[in-house]
Specification:
The structure is a homodimer of 192-residue chains. Chain A has 192 residues and is mainly α. Helix content of chain A is 77%, strand content 0%. The first copy, chain A, has eleven helices and no strands. In chain A, helix 5 packs parallel to helix 8. The longest helix of chain A has 23 residues. Chain A is globular, with a radius of gyration of 18 Å. In chain A, 40% of the residues are buried. About 3% of the residues of chain A have low confidence. The interface between A and B is large, with 42 and 42 residues.
């Protein structure tokens, strides 16, 4: 493969890979899309996709403008131990949603889920394997999966009513106030 | 106004009013749409709209296929007193969402909110005044509005992840299991 000058060539190539990734995830779902197929669509070697973006999970995260790798997000949420997971996960969630680029991408992803089953499938497959299972693995409970899903539901619901439907009571509060109100309920689902 | 035979005429007229209502709420928002305007659009007298559907609130409820009047929904949620509001509100919410006609309408309403500000406005204006304020009025707390909005967020979030994104952990549980897990958190927001 011909190598081009570093800076502009890199940016173009990265953009082509991200565009191919978005289209592949939308068309095939997260689990069925492959790095090889995405590389082919972008006209690059699969190794270059890994070189730029890491794993498929990292590539999906980059395609939806997550400001950190999914594994790092799970680590951050769990870094303070299970007694602080409610606080750390809630803080992390809103820090991502308050970032305009991430918010726009997450809203587009949710909007897509209302429209096509393939988009809904990508969304659930990605968040299930990248974040929810990593947290559920730390919970000593037979219904760990349900507990984590109810936490996800609570946080996503706040995002929908704060950023989309825009209920006044949820728009006017700061992230700190939200975290203070919500973190104890998140904690009680995960360790209560 | 010419009166037609009761049965088919009634059904046609009701249908015309509902169609005019849906279009008026979508175009002007809930608060700005008027019974007079809707009646004009449907080619009937405003008194007939009141006769068939009651208040504007009831008409909006009918337009989105709610199986009961909003005031009745609030009454049902509050009927057991504030110590049972978590359980009664959560049960009521899922009994409405498990009704296919209501669910389709509510999903269409939410999908619309992702697409146009007018749809988001109608949604927040209607639920704010028909349900959330009635419940907030029963809470002795300076942040009653936020508490009720967080409850709404939690319930809506479960609906989005159970019926749209369809996370396995939320799809496979029964409504009774959901209510058992969620009602205590709803209760703690409202009276905790």
């Amino acid at each position: 493969m011909a190598r081009t000058g570093r800076r502009p060539g890199d940016a173009d190539t990265r953009g082509a890979i991200l565009a191919a990734a978005r289209s592949a995830f939308a068309e095939h779902g997260y689990h069925s899309a492959t790095i090889r197929g995405i590389a082919g669509e972008a006209g690059v070697d699969p190794a270059l996709v890994h070189h730029y973006f890491g794993t498929k999970e990292d590539l999906f995260g980059a395609a939806i403008s997550l400001p950190l790798r999914p594994a790092e997000a799970a680590e951050l949420a769990l870094a303070g131990g299970m007694e602080a997971v409610g606080l750390n996960l809630t803080r992390l969630f809103f820090s991502i949603w308050e970032n305009p680029a991430s918010r726009d991408s997450l809203l587009a992803l949710l909007r897509g889920a209302f429209t096509t089953e393939q988009a809904a499938q990508s969304l659930r497959e990605f968040f299930q394997s990248s974040l929810m299972e990593r947290i559920a693995d730390q919970i000593q409970s037979s219904d760990a999966g349900l507990r984590v899903a109810l936490v996800a539901a609570h946080l996503v619901g706040i995002a929908v009513l704060r950023y989309v439907v825009r209920f006044e009571a949820l728009r006017r509060v700061s992230v700190d106030e939200l975290v203070e109100a919500v973190a104890p309920r998140v904690q009680s689902y995960l360790t209560g």
